[in-house]
Amino acid sequence: MQASRLPFLITPLLAMIASACVAYAQDVELPEIVVPNAYAPTQTPSAGAATFQPTVTLEARLTEESDPLNGGLIWRIFDTQTGPDGKLPLIVTTQGGTAQVQLFPGDYFIHTTFGRASASSRLTVGTEPLIETVVLNAGGLRLGATLPDGSPVRDGKLVFDIYESEITAADGERRMILPGVPPRQIVRLPEGTYHIVSRYGDINAEIRADLHVQAGKTTDAAIEHRAALVTLNLVREANGFPLPDTAWSVLDSSTGGIIREDIGAYPSMILAAGEYTAVAKHRDRLFQEEFAVAPGRDMTVRLRTDENEVDPNASQDLN
From CA 306, how far away is CA 279, in angstroms rounded? Predict the structure, then answer.
């Protein structure tokens, strides 16, 4: 490649690198694509080129002032000229923290990923060893949740979806960046504002918030959920055992719509604070009870066969 043409090709080539590496942009604490610790395809120097390879030290920082990162990085070095397949040939892949590679003198592109943060840059290797520093301008986000009294939620029922903050004009939706993030896991992100959806349980306890990630820092956020765990029983008397083979429907009292159906003696679910109706069907008999969920107040709703029976013909839509 002639030097006079190189500036006009840098932008599209960087775009090609970014496109080629999207699939690798995994968070460092989530399952990662396994790459060798140091993988170097055969690099053949052009005719008349030098046959020695100076050592290139690669280091990455969250900000210009921060210390070099000592782990969680994936480095990929590409040739600047496309191959027969129209793609930039991959020269070296390595992961960890600061890395050292040996390259023949020439021009290269570097793509660096750290979780969901990444950067692309151009590297020129001469005849002397050199140090290449990449500034990622990134930080971390660690999410959790509490109930109104400050007590923690059940971690196994809590997940977070991370979206871009801006709504696209094309479809009116936000682009999802990372789904199903568990609580207290650090997600590496470029500096910016993100839209967070916190889901507690799998029914209707959902909270949304916009959070800002600052480069060089980890943002800790605890989202308050106004919900509680509800367990349903159908009993013959006050202290009786719950009846098995009971079919349940839970209705939102404000809309009348069914939000959960289950079968069993002890069905449990997490519901957002509000008013609901529990309907139990046991054999050919139907029972019904209204109840209210208070934030953070786990409860058991007991329907009694001698008090809560209703006419099945009056609730045919629940049969």
Answer: 15
Structure tokens at 304: 């009694």
Q: Give yes or no for a contact between 205 and 270, defined as CB atoms under 8 angstroms apart.
A: yes
- Residue 202 CA to residue 28 CA, distance in Å, equals 27
Side chain identity at 81, as an amino acid letter? Q
Quick check: 132 and 85 in contact, CB under 8 A?
no
- State how beta strands 55-61 and 130-135 pair: parallel
Please give the Cα distance from 5 to 198 (Å, whole number).
49
Question: pLDDT digits over 138-179, tens only?
Answer: 999 999 999 998 888 999 999 999 999 998 867 788 999 999
Element (H, E) at 43: none
pLDDT above 80 for 265:
yes
Burial per residue of 4-29, b for 16 or more beta-carbon CB atoms within 10 angstroms, e otherwise: eeeeeeeeebbebbeeebeeebbbbe
Closest to 177 in 3D by CA, of 164, 168, 190, 186: 164
